[in-house]
C-alpha cells in the first residue's frame, strides 16, 4: 500500500475512534465565530497632520470579529464539564485582537449542573451581560464606548485573568453571579485582585438587572498595572504611582431595565464609575481648572488622570418594521467630575440606525452617530479622538455574519 494511502487510512481510523469515544461520553465540540466589518466615515479625527476626516474599512463596528470553540461532556447525574476558547480578530488586517493574545476573549474550563456553573480562567464579568441586555452597546457596538467613559464602565466588555466565576441556576427568571480574580502576587492577597457580583430578573417582556465590579492596583512602575483586571490598564487612575498595591483604583456598577411590547422594545441603563486614586498626572501642579486647548490631555478626559467620578445614562428603542427589518435609536449622556476643576464635563451622543437581516446568520447595517463634548476633551466615536473640545459625526455601513 502506498505511504500516503496508509497515512490517510490511519488518520480516518483515528478520527473515527475519537468520534466513537466522544459518543460514549456524550460530549460535543462546536466551532463558531462572528465576522463584522464595514466602511466607516468619521469627521474631525485628531492625527499627526492636525484634525481632519477619516474614512476606511473597520472591523467589529457592532460586534468584535472572533472565532472560538466550545464543548461539553456529560458526566452523568446532571453534571457537565465545559470549556470555551475564543480569540478576537481585526478583520481588516487579519491580526489578533486583545493585544495580540490568540485566545484573549475567553479561555475557561469549568463544571455545570443543578448547582449552577463554575468557570476558571480569563473571561468577561457580569456587567457585560447587564450591558448587553440593557445598554445600547448591543445595537451600536463600539460606537458608544467613548461616551461610556471610554469603556471604563465595562459596557464594551473587559476581562479579568486568574478568575473564578460562579453563576446560579435560573430560579423562575432570577439569576445571580459572583466573580473573584486573584492578583497572584507573592505575599499579598490584595495586590492586583478584582471581584464583582450581580443579578438579573426576567418575566415575559420585562427585564431588570445590576452588576458591580472593582479592581485593585497590582505591582509595577509608571503606568504599568499588573492587576488581574485587564481593563484596569485603560484607567488613568490605576497608575501604580498614584497609590499602593492593593488599593482599589476602579469601582463601577450598572443598573438596567427593558420592556418589549408588540414590535417595540425600550431600554435604559445607568452606570457610575469611580476612580478613588485619580489625580493630575502632569509634571506640574496645580493645573488649569478650566479646559483650554493648552491643558494637558491627561486631564479633562473620559477615564483620564483627574476624572474621579462618572455617570452615564443610556436610553434606547428598537422597532421592528418587518420581522427582518429593525429601526434603532438611542441617546446617551455622560457627566464627569474632575479633581481640581469647578466645571463638570459632559458628553452627549445621538445614534440612529437600521439593521436588515438577509438570514438568521447574516445582516446588513447602517448607522450614524453624533457626539458633542462640553468642558472636556471628546473621546471620539470611532477612528481616534476628534480635535480638542469638538463635535464628531460618524457613519458606517457594513455586514455581519455568524457561523
UniProtKB/TrEMBL annotation:
<dbReference type="InterPro" id="IPR050298">
    <property type="entry name" value="Gram-neg_bact_OMP"/>
</dbReference>
<keyword id="KW-0812">Transmembrane</keyword>
<dbReference type="GO" id="GO:0006811">
    <property type="term" value="P:monoatomic ion transport"/>
</dbReference>
<keyword id="KW-0813">Transport</keyword>
<keyword id="KW-0998">Cell outer membrane</keyword>
<protein>
    <submittedName>
        <fullName>Outer membrane porin protein</fullName>
    </submittedName>
</protein>
<dbReference type="Pfam" id="PF13609">
    <property type="entry name" value="Porin_4"/>
</dbReference>
<keyword id="KW-0732">Signal</keyword>
<dbReference type="InterPro" id="IPR002299">
    <property type="entry name" value="Porin_Neis"/>
</dbReference>
<keyword id="KW-1134">Transmembrane beta strand</keyword>
<feature type="domain" description="Porin">
    <location>
        <begin position="18"/>
        <end position="374"/>
    </location>
</feature>
<feature type="signal peptide">
    <location>
        <begin position="1"/>
        <end position="25"/>
    </location>
</feature>
<dbReference type="GO" id="GO:0046930">
    <property type="term" value="C:pore complex"/>
</dbReference>
<dbReference type="InterPro" id="IPR023614">
    <property type="entry name" value="Porin_dom_sf"/>
</dbReference>
<keyword id="KW-0472">Membrane</keyword>
<keyword id="KW-0626">Porin</keyword>
<dbReference type="GO" id="GO:0015288">
    <property type="term" value="F:porin activity"/>
</dbReference>
<keyword id="KW-0406">Ion transport</keyword>
<dbReference type="InterPro" id="IPR033900">
    <property type="entry name" value="Gram_neg_porin_domain"/>
</dbReference>
<dbReference type="GO" id="GO:0009279">
    <property type="term" value="C:cell outer membrane"/>
</dbReference>
<comment type="subunit">
    <text>Homotrimer.</text>
</comment>
